[in-house]
Structures are given as structure tokens and as C-alpha cells.
Amino acid sequence: MKTANTFAIVASLLLLFTFSTLKAQTSHSLDYIVLNTGDTLYGKVKHINQRKVSPRYYKKIRFTDTQGKRKKYKRSDIAAFRANNTHYEGVWLSQSSRGVILINPRYDIDPQNGEKHFLRVISKGKLGHYYLEWWEQGESGSSWMDLLKKEGDQFFIRATQGLFGLKRKTLAKYFSNCPALKEQIQQKRIRKISQVVNFYNKHCAQ
Question: Is the pLDDT of residue 2 over 70?
């Protein structure tokens, strides 16, 4: 009897472990949305209307839960989401009027006066890298600008200028707290955003 009880307990624990593992794997592979309330909902997320010649962002994000139930959420009610294994974070942005914007474009985090954008997360760390994306009329693919943000800052900076590469003056000023990185940028030893991010996170961040 004791052996039978022990076997039943072990079997139950194994079943529970298997269920938990499968649930974790399923959650990891699913899209999700994070509401402003903090609740995370898993299922299928659609945020781009691709049925037209030029794709456009839906005004409301489409969500289908694991039971097949569909619902639309206002973009303002969502804090973050993952769609097709791509992560997005919602931020209220306004372009700063400080200094000459064309030389040093800065985007402040401003929930009161800003516009809601979902930034694609490229990498996270002491220095984060994000894409601010948009769709051009008649284009099937999206355009984007590279934004960087130090941990703790309440603003992003635009780090590239399209085909012209890095905004070196902007970056040199932004990284004045790290002379080694500033020199690398000014001397053109660093040419890619990924190199800027990696250098800062490895050598500059405290």
C-alpha cells in the first residue's frame, strides 16, 4: 500500500511538472499583449493591416486568445506586446525643442503631451536600442529610425541619418560621459549602431 501511494505521488508530481513545462513552452512561443493594468494575455496579436497595397497600423490592436476568442484593444490601453516573435514597447514621445532639432534630435518621454508609439525592441541593457517604425505611401515594407536610450533617461536620441550612417556629433555629445566611446565614434572606428551599443554596455555602463 505504501509503495502504491508513493508511486501515485511521484506520478502526480511528474504530471504537474510536465504540464508546467508545456505551459511555459507554449507561453514562450505565443504572442502576447501587456495591458496598462499589468495583465499579460497570451494568444495571437495583429497590429498591421496588410490587406491593402500599402500596409498600415491598425488603430486598435487585434488579439485572439488561446480559446479563439477575439478582441480589439485601444493602443493607449496596451503597455507592450509581442507579435511574430518581435517585441514592442509603448512609449509616449514628443520631439524636444531644446537646441537645434536637425542637429541633435531628441524624443522626450512625455505621457501628457506625447504621441503613443510602439518601439520595436532591438536590444536591452544599460543602453537600449529601438526602432521607431512607420509606413510610407505605396511602400510594402516599413521604414525606421534608430533610437538609443540610456537606462534611467527620460528621452531617446536619434542615432542614424538614413543612408549617411551614424549621427556622429549627436552620439559624441550623448556619450560625453564615456570618453573612450566618444573617441571611437569621432575617429570613425565605430560605424554601426550595434557596435555603439555593445561598446557602451561592455566598457561604459557602471
Answer: no
